[in-house]
Amino acid sequence: MTLIAGTTASLLVRREVPPYGWFLAEDEAEGTPELLLPYGEAAGNRPSVGDSADVFIFHDDKGRLTATTRRPLLQLGQMGRLEMADFHPRFGCFLELGIGRQLLLPIKELPDNRDRWPQPGDELHVIMKHDKEGRMLARLAKIEDYERVVFRAPSSWHHEQRECWVTDIYKDGVFMLAHGGVLGYGALGYLPNASMIHPLRLGEKTVARVTQVRDDGRVTLSMRPAKEVGRLEDSDRILAFLQARPGGAMPYSDSTPADVIQKRFGLSKSAFKRALGKLMKDRLVVQDGNWTRLAASEGAAREAVASSDASTDTDAGAGGDPAGRD
Question: Nearest Cα to 238, choosing from 281, 197, 267, 211?
């Protein structure tokens, strides 16, 4: 057996050396490599010489193999969800390992878009591996890693709200792990950009609605409410936007390109059209070419024109040009 960082081992307590701690080895044989279990790393009962101690092996700050009786949240080759504790602009994300030490996720593992990088408190699904020198390191879990542990989502999930974590980011959406509750680790899902309320970060936790349970057991997700509820909320948002605009008008309509709608309102083109349709049906807005206006603003404009015309007619009848008199 070889002493390997990131693994647990049952080792013999060969000797105690104050003020450092206990030196452990695989057996009593002469020349067997030893490693230190510092006093500060002995959680719970203190071992005695001759005892067997179950320890987790890691590298200390000076690069020496060291033991602890604390139990880590993740071991070599395992996948787990770890909370981000800190970030270093040169090295990457430092993840809580549960032993008073942190595990590095290198910056090269992060998305190209820095706006989508995780923040402290976000939770990342990673695999523990070794670097070239045998020290513990994290890498982001990939689809093939999830396939070994996730389950097929049941059809009963359709329309349910699920807690989800962003596991990977693509140009048109994000992959997520939908929490499985008592069922197990979770199910894989995909959330398209058009179904987001705001851009999501890697590792960010959110609640999303299952819009489809696919034949392969994966799910399609949305952060938006069901269409009827969403139509009411979206129409209220557009109405408030118009009310805050000068003249109660905006240069957006049914013919506005989908990418412009998504960028300006965070809505898909179809959701925007549904909301506009409701507002027009309720006679709250009108469309004029590529513009949409509040119906009240349209009426006020017509009243202003009519008032102006009436004023002109009155002035002409009351005074008029002297040259027009008999």
Answer: 267
